[in-house]
Write a structure and sequence with these properties.
This protein is an alpha+beta fold and 147 residues long. Helices cover 41% and strands 22% of the residues. It is elongated, with a radius of gyration of 33 Å.
């Protein structure tokens, strides 16, 4: 019993190092910080992926609308994909005819209007981009006016 008291007194003035409790608190704080940083990084990556899809989908939708305007594809309900050039992207087009007879001044329009809803999606179904486009129906053999 006397040696225990001696040992306790021997280390009484020793103040160097950290206690186990201090180390455990420091590790807990670091762990919480790292979890928050990794969560923010993961969220940033998913936002980047979504932004890339939206940019590509807008370009593909513009291309498909240009094909309809140029008469390269018919203005009717249809769907398809973009082939090997843009793997994983598919499109669908819903076309409806608008009646403008009820509107004042519409008597000068000699063609009907089409409402084209174009959707671009990934085949995985993660993201979807939809745009609506309005156009007059083209007559058979009509040339497209280019500015």
């Amino acid at each position: 019993m006397g040696s225990a008291i001696l040992n306790r007194g021997k280390y009484k003035d020793f103040a160097g190092g950290f206690t186990l409790l201090e180390v455990m608190i420091a590790v807990a704080i670091l762990s919480i910080s790292l979890v928050a940083l990794l969560g923010a990084q993961s969220h940033s990556l998913s936002l980047t992926t979504e932004a890339q899809f939206n940019t590509t989908a807008a370009m593909l939708a513009q291309e498909k609308i240009a094909e309809v305007e140029a008469g390269l594809i018919p203005c009717r309900d249809d769907q398809g994909d973009y082939g090997e050039e843009f793997l994983g992207y598919k499109w669908s087009m819903r076309v409806s005819t608008l009646s403008l007879q009820a509107f004042p001044g519409s008597g000068t329009l000699d063609r009907t209007m089409c409402k084209v809803e174009l959707s671009i999606a990934q085949t995985a179904g993660t993201f979807n981009y939809t745009t609506t486009y309005y156009s007059q129906e083209r007559r058979a053999g009509e040339q497209v006016d280019m500015p």
